[in-house]
Amino acid sequence: MHLYRDAAEGRQVVGEYPIVEYGEGEGVRLGDTAGTVEEALVSLRAGGVDHGCALNSFELHDHPMPPEGGWPAAPPYAEQAGELRAVDEWICAVGAEHPEVLAFVTVNPAVLSATEAAAHIATMADDHGARGLKLHTIALRAFPAEPALATTFAACAERALPVVAHCGPDRHGAGWALPGVFAPVLDRHPDLPLVLAHLGGAAWREIAELALAFPSARFDLSEIVSWSGHAPGAPGREELSALIREIGADRVLMGSDFPWYEPGDVVAAVEDLPGLGDTERAAILGENAASLIAL
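Request: output the structure for the sequence above.
Response:
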């Protein structure tokens, strides 16, 4: 889930994030809320969902491109570090007030240096109760294996802190979040609890190879399960079920991507996937996440 401090902020983010990678789709039901905490709590209850991981992000407003070679050791937008920390402290405070909300914090290599990022993760996890980290490397304009993110993954691996990373193609064609670019991170940290979101999105055909090479990698069904069978760039329902079984249902988690989609709709979409048994559905809809986050 993605939560926002007020409705205006949420509406702006949702409006600036068009979903284009699957192509034109029909019959995809999108949410109509702004992603406030109050709306999220209502949506969880309405969907019969016990917990939601609130995945934070901190993006630069004009989405500047990094210099050739990636973000430098000295972050060029360090003046925004205080705001990044404040947003993460806010999501952790929401989690402390509402136990059904599990706070996932974030970093940004254009704002925090590698050393500062590792220290921030430690502070958020140890002092503020963060349950994991979210990275959207397309929004960060960074490849996962860049030196600027090395300490981030190392800090999470050290704490066995789950990392949820956006996974899929980008409109620039840069490949910042394609499945294969996570291989060096998984090779360096084979026990890192890394969840690649959207099952690779429109790059879902590349997921099976990565899953075979790195048995510790996990995946979630956010967005892709809602588009499955509705757009040319998304898998059909049978194809999605076959991919889940090829990976192993014990490595696949449900994700709603609220407020773009309602949790209850995503539960129904998972339950409607053909060819999966009750044990596999139960694992996807909660047991895998409970084990990963130690609920």
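The radius of gyration is 18 Å.
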